[in-house]
Each structure stands twice: as structure tokens, then as C-alpha cells.
Amino acid sequence: MGAGQESKPLIEGLAKTANKLLQNRLMRSHDLTGAVFQRLIADRKFLAAYYTTPASAALLAALAITPEAAAGGKSWSSTDEVKTLRVADFACGTGTLLSTAYQRVSQLHELAGGDAEALHPHMMASALIGCDVLPAAAHLTASMLSGAHPTVKYEQSSILTVAYGKQPDGAIALGSLDLLDPQGRFEVLSITAKAAEGMGEAEKETWQSLPHASFDVVIMNPPFTRDVGHEGSKIGVRNPMFAAFSASAEEQRLMSEATKRLTAGTSAHGNAGEASIFLVLADCKLKPEGMLALVMPLIPSPFE
Fold first, then answer.
1. Do 172 and 262 touch, CB atoms closer than 8 A?
2. What is the pTM of this model?
């Protein structure tokens, strides 16, 4: 079989895929990768991994990060002060919100006379923090952020894949929600240097301390699955909030109990959805003068 015959089915497959993208109007998206990826998530129902459109991300970032002054009164013209900014998305998905926030920071710094490209290695290392339970999503986030200045090398990334569900040693991991306990166990599945960073191929630990009250901006479109729901009962799922990755009923029970312990005494409530727990997490992580930008579900009134 000649080379032409071998490549023909591949080209035909690509043509069919491109045609479907056009039919679904996905080519109009500024973030095609994110739009396609969220359609491929097998556990989308339970992870509530719904795509944030670029327009929504731009609006949220612009409202949260303003020209007047950086968080905490820092000056956009000061390279040293901009370097101290910390921006986090603890449910980063494919990075739409975090990369939009980064674009906003870079824009305001450059408008004030700064050089955003020179800041890129530092921003990648410690200023931009993203967490997700899906390794592929974390890798896409790192790729989107690094693409802001593709020719600039950097040595470290703070985009993390966080452990979720029952672990090999029997412990229960809750993804980013484990950060509610600053003294507790927090498992990070390292992203390789080759995939998430700009130099080298050796695996290295990307974990950095994420203490409470240490972030200037937290921007998220968090999962909003509820721990009870008609959809779960229809398909025999004990707790949809923790049913991702084929978790057993026992694992779902243990994860629910662990979450209740971490959220005791807070405003989080399972019936209000997982977004209420991420709201508490964001509040814990923000500095007193920090800015919270969150996409929250509209909860119908019980009286309607």
C-alpha cells in the first residue's frame, strides 16, 4: 500500500471532524481546545465541568481586575509589586478563566509601562495557580498559560493535578476541597516538566504551599453538582457530587463524610451544590483585601 493510500483515511477523518466543528459553530470560539475538551469529558454530569465561554471569562476578569490598582493597592507600573500578585483558580478546567486573568494582568501592566514578557517566568512559577482533578485539563491549562509568551522559557509551573477519590493507601482525597484544611493531607499528582514547563524533561514536584489568606485574586467557575438530585436517583447514584471516576457507593459515602467534616461551621451546604463549598474555599484563600470572582449557579427559590 502506497503512502497516499495509507494517508487517505486519516485525511478523510480530519475532514469529517472539521466539518462537524463548523456545523456546531465551534470554530467561532476563541478557545476551541476548551470547547472541544468539555464535550469529551466522560464524567461531565458528575464533575459539572461546563465550559466557560471566552466572553464570560473576559467580563469576569475585567470586573475583578481593574485599572485603578492591583489587588491590595499595588501599582501596575511597579514590576516588583506585580510580581507579588497571586491569582488562583482551584477548579481551573482547561484554563479559560486563569489565562484570561493573566491576559488582563499583562495588559494593565503594559499599559502602565511594564514589560509583561519579562515577567512571564515568574508568573508561571508562582503567580498563577491552577488546580484540577483531570490531568488532561491541567496540562491544557499549563499549555494555554505558557502560550501567552511561547518563546520565553520558564523552569516551573504551579498548575496542579490534585488527587480525587480513594487513594492506593486507602485515604480519601477530595481534590481542591482538601485545601480547606491548611494542616491536612493534600495529594498532588506531579505534572512532568516536559508537559507543563518550558525546560527539561525530568519529572519534578510542582507543589507549593497554598496557605489561607495568601491570594490576591481567586477566579473560578466551580463545579455545581449537588449531593442530592433527581438525576442521581434516576441512575442509581448515591451521591452525584462524588460519583466521578466510577466511585463506588462506599467511596461516595466516605468522600461526603470527609467534606462535611471540612465544611462544619461554614456557609457551605450540599443541598446548595458544590459551588457553595468552593465559595468557602475561595474565601479562606483570599487575602483580606483580595478579590473574589466566581460564576455561581442560580438556585431557584423553594417558594417558587
1. no
2. 0.77
Give the H or E element holding residue 188: strand 188-189
Distance CA 99, CA 104 (A): 9
CATH number of 32-294: 3.40.50
Q: Tens-digit pLDDT profile for the chain (304 aa)? A: 556 677 888 888 888 877 776 666 544 444 555 555 455 444 444 444 556 778 888 999 999 999 987 877 889 999 999 999 999 999 998 888 999 999 999 999 999 999 999 999 999 988 999 998 888 888 888 888 988 898 898 888 888 888 888 888 888 889 899 999 877 666 666 443 333 444 433 334 445 578 899 999 999 998 867 655 544 444 455 566 777 657 788 888 888 899 999 999 998 887 777 889 999 999 999 999 999 999 877 755 444 4
| C-alpha cell at position 157 | 509551573
Q: Is the dihedral of CA 99, 100, 104, 105 positive or negative?
A: negative
Nearest to 282 by CA among 33, 89, 2: 89
Q: Smallest Cα–Cα separation from 256: which of 272, 234, 240, 232?
A: 240
The cell numbers describing 216, all together, are 490576591
Beta carbons of 191 and 161 less than 8 angstroms apart: yes
Dist. CA 266–CA 276, nearest whole Å: 10
Q: How far apart are CA 136 and CA 203, in angstroms?
A: 16
